Amino acid sequence: GMSLGTSMEKYVSIFGEAYVASVSAGEEAGVLEEILSKLATNLENENEFQGKVKGAMIYPTIVIVGMLVVMVIMMIFVIPKLTSLYADFGTAKMPAITQGLMTVSNWMAKLWFLFPILFLLPTIILKIGAKNPVFNLKKDKFFLRLPIAGKLSQMTILASTCRTLSMLLTAGIPLVEALRIVGTVSGNEVYKKAYGDIAQKVQKGFGISVSFENTNVFPVIVTQMVATGEATGKLDEVLLKVASYFSVEAEQAVAALTAAIEPLIMIVLGIGVGFLVVAVVMPIYNLTSSF
């Protein structure tokens, strides 16, 4: 005999606070069917957007990780075997490039146990720091300031939060509560704090657009569009347009980034392979030339 919203509240970790609140509001207003349809559309759009962004980054990530793995294997296992082969040449007869490669390889072979630690250390630090709100805030501020990744992250967050806020307002959730919920589900401490501050200011009687502008974390286009929505009384529709705008911007940014990374990877890979070939083959060439 429990309502759907009340039942979903017991599984808020699965459904998410925004969806639970929307269903509860839809039940109270008698428009549950309409709200569920909008939730389904929102979820479909969100999954499609996230899928495009993540999918575009898979290939460059795999190539970069593969390059690093091959490099480490070469330096730790292959080059040391060649070192014994070159031992009879004498360091004086070996080119400087080969001597340098062998020195680095010997160092990496002796300290190989540090590589798993260095690989896992960032994950451990982030996992421990996740329990500290101050650490999370500084971490998110740092990532948002990164030249390319930070801009992409901001566009992704804005697309997601504006779409969610539009959905909540359409469902009839009061603006202050909707802002608080959006901040909670934003996944970023900077924007969580920003939406929380906006909610407090709106509750005190400040204008919505002014409250957005005073946070200093939203682009001008967002504050201008929010001002338009506030003036026309169609904030939910305007926010949906903002979400669509940033979704397209993020997709285009990812496509451009991928297009730029691929040739750069090929160049770096070519330089690396050329360096290894020269360093490995040159001593053999010098030896055969001396006969």
TrEMBL record:
It comes from the Bacteria. Residues 1-80, 162-283 form the Type II secretion system protein GspF domain. This is Type II secretion system protein F. Keywords: Cell inner membrane, Cell membrane, Membrane, Transmembrane, Transmembrane helix. The chain crosses the membrane at residues 57-79, 111-130, 264-285. It comes from Candidatus Shapirobacteria bacterium CG_4_9_14_3_um_filter_36_12. Its main location: membrane. Belongs to the GSP F family. Signal peptide: none annotated. The keyword Metal-binding does not apply. Coiled coil: none annotated. It is a multi-pass membrane protein. GO terms for biological process: protein secretion by the type II secretion system. One of its GO terms (cellular component) is plasma membrane. InterPro entries: GspF/PilC (IPR003004), T2SS_GspF_dom (IPR018076), T2SS_GspF_sf (IPR042094). It is found in: Cell inner membrane.
